[in-house]
Amino acid sequence: MVKAADVIGGDPRALARAATLVENQGHGSDRLLHEVAPHAGRALILGITGPPGAGKSTLCDQLIALLRTEGKTVGVIAVDPSSPVSGGALLGDRVRMQRHHDDTGVFIRSMATRGTPGGLARATAGLATLLDAAGRDVVIVETVGVGQSEVEIARLAQVTVLVLAPGSGDEVQAMKAGVMEVADVFVINKADLPGVDKLAQELHETAGDRPILRTVASEGQGVEEVLAAARAAKRKPLLQPQETGPRIDHLGIAVKSLDQALRFYEEQLGLPVALRETVIEEKVNVAMLPVGVAQGEPRIELLEASEPGSVIAKFIEKRGEGIHHIALKVPDLAAAVERLRTSGARILNEPRAGAGGHLYVFVHPSSTGGVLLELIQA
User: Fold this and answer.
1) Do residues 203 and 173 make contact, with C-beta atoms less than 8 angstroms apart?
2) Strand partners, 188
3) Which residue from 32, 84, 130, 224 has the fewest beta carbons nearer than 10 Å?
4) Could you tell me if 225 and 297 lie in one domain?
5) Do residues 227 and 273 both lie within one domain?
6) Cα–Cα nearest to 326, from 371, 277, 286
7) Which domain holds residue 272?
8) What is the C-alpha to C-alpha distance for residues 30 and 35, in angstroms, rounded to an integer?
């Protein structure tokens, strides 16, 4: 059994076992992520994306080497195509960044997409949380490739680096409605090849004031500038703008089967699962799916009864599947609860931790005009 304390303590063997557990969504993986999550939030999560052949892996290799010269520890998640035979990562660790495998300051894990759209594996966010909680200073997530719809890396990474190479004109046109809009740093790799100026001109049309850098990653040229630009562009999702009122956090939808519902939301809509766990107190299995590409945007929360007779089970029995509640995020939960109680609103519970560790209370539908309302501490 993998212990959260061992992962948080940086034990590489425990981290490796935990990574396997999370990738396979094994028994206890949700609880493990819940236990380590409070210790995450310190690492720079750096997403590296771009079309196949642009040199993403070579750039990652050079970034790792540069970070290690600074004394930084690094975690790498390389998302690969799935093997049609085994379902595992097709490329695998052996051909990626081999020179770092004996370095205890570098943890590399290849993950298969297993058919998940968006360029990331389902468990990528969980593994990033593990590496962050284990004390890695930088977590690099390299996607399998990129296309118009494959912008999921921006949901996970604090900084998204889009890597292109001369001759990528068609890819630029295809990506203009996708990852081009969410990338933070643009890198023209293989800048010693013909066509680099033309590509730079095409990028300037859509990049605005975002940095466009040139590298020859195979020679280590321009890598320091890429790292500096990524650090300068780092978003701080925990430091949201000052909120003056409530805003929608998520919509709770009661379903009979999480797995069946996720086949629609993941496979048809392309929404990734950011969190999946069991909330014992509520007797419910939960899956959280972000709707927007930025941190803090609204989510869909799928709710499946974990035990007969639970609130969700009774809801489905009475009303069938559908919207169960609306959740609003408020700047000061305690103050909001006090105001509601003073006005006579019916509060169903004292503030307590829910899925993902957030504090929440429920307000009875009789006080809200017929809708169960969840208030969450921002």
Assistant:
1) no
2) 164, 214
3) 84
4) no
5) no
6) 371
7) 247-377
8) 9
Token readout for 261 is 């519902």
**Which phi and psi angles does 286 have, rounded to 5°?**
-125, 140
Look at residues 233, 260, 295 and tell me which one is the last residue of a structural domain: 233
Residue at 320: amino acid letter: G
Q: For residue 6, what are the contacts with CB-CB under 8 A and spacing of at least 6?
A: 14
Q: Are residues 224 and 257 in the same domain?
A: no
Q: What tokens does 310 get?
A: 């639970």
Q: Domain check: are 223 and 259 in the same one?
A: no
Q: 107, 138 in Cβ contact below 8 A?
A: no
| Pairing label, strands 247-254, 322-330 | antiparallel
Q: What is the pLDDT of residue 167?
A: 80
289-299 pLDDT, tens digit per residue, is: 887 655 567 88
Q: Which residue in the block uniquely carries the two structure tokens 């981290």? A: 15
Q: Is the pTM of this model over 0.70?
A: no
**What is the per-residue pLDDT for 190?**
95
Spell out the residues 6+ positions from residue 163 whose beta carbon is closer than 8 angstroms to its own.
48, 49, 50, 54, 55, 56, 59, 187, 189
Q: Are 196 and 322 part of one and the same domain? A: no
Phi, psi of 249 (to 5 degrees): -100, -50
